[in-house]
Design brief:
The protein starts with a strand and ends with a helix. Helix content is about 40%, strand content about 20%. α2 links the parallel β3 and β4. The protein is an alpha/beta fold and about 210 residues long. The strands form three sheets. A three-stranded antiparallel β-sheet has the order 7-1-8. The longest helix has 22 residues. The protein is globular, with a radius of gyration of 18 Å.
């Protein structure tokens, strides 16, 4: 209630990643191993109960397995731990691993937390395809303090909406691995409400 939605700018979907030489080539193989070896698999995160920690816990809860989560200082350290073999799995955002996957990459993606397969990863299945109703990631939105005059809100809504449609911005965002995701003030307000409900009611169940 202390903010007024302007627009959403990005949505960075989460992905399940392992080292390229890991013994699992599918998300099913990974889940099966975790179930058979509870707590044995180490997962790096970007902090206790931070976004990427939540990502792995959502999957673990839905699929019925346990992993041992190790918090690091941030996403860069989290992925370095995976690349160096300190842990066996990680759940960063897709853009964070864009330069680390592919034919010459160090990592491979087992699944994405998206409604549809990612354009840049057409061979990577979604968790929804595998029976897990999980769509998750980090939204990047612009808001203003409650009480801001409506004409100011309208100015920024128009400015940022036009910026998101700008061809140069679209191209640069794509090159940077950023997933543009426009939400109008009304849609963003509904999204914020749903995320508030998630934080209040779902999040506590992931760490009980």
């Amino acid at each position: 209630d202390s903010v007024v939605p302007i627009v959403n700018h990005l949505f960075e979907p989460s992905v399940v990643v392992v080292k390229k030489d890991a013994p699992w080539n599918t998300i099913e193989e990974f889940i099966e191993y975790c179930k058979a070896n509870p707590g044995k698999v180490l997962c790096s995160t970007n902090g206790v109960k931070a976004s990427n920690h939540i990502g792995i816990q959502l999957l673990a809860k839905a699929a019925g397995f346990k992993v041992n989560c190790i918090p690091y200082g941030g996403t860069a350290d989290q992925l370095l731990a995976l690349r160096q073999g300190e842990v066996q799995v990680s759940v960063p955002k897709a853009g964070d691993v864009a330069s680390l996957i592919g034919e010459n990459g160090e990592l491979k993606v087992l699944a994405s937390y998206t409604d549809e397969r990612l354009e840049d990863m057409p061979n990577v299945p979604t968790l929804k395809e595998k029976g897990y109703k999980l769509v998750y990631g980090s939204a990047r939105a612009l808001v203003a303090p409650a009480g801001t005059p409506q004409e100011i809100i309208d100015f920024y809504v128009k400015a940022f909406t036009e910026t998101m449609k700008d061809a140069e911005n679209i191209e640069k965002s794509k090159n940077a691995g950023l997933s543009l995701s426009y939400m109008s003030p009304e849609v963003l307000g509904q999204f914020i409400d749903s995320e508030d409900d998630f934080v209040r009611n779902t999040l506590p169940t992931l760490f009980d």
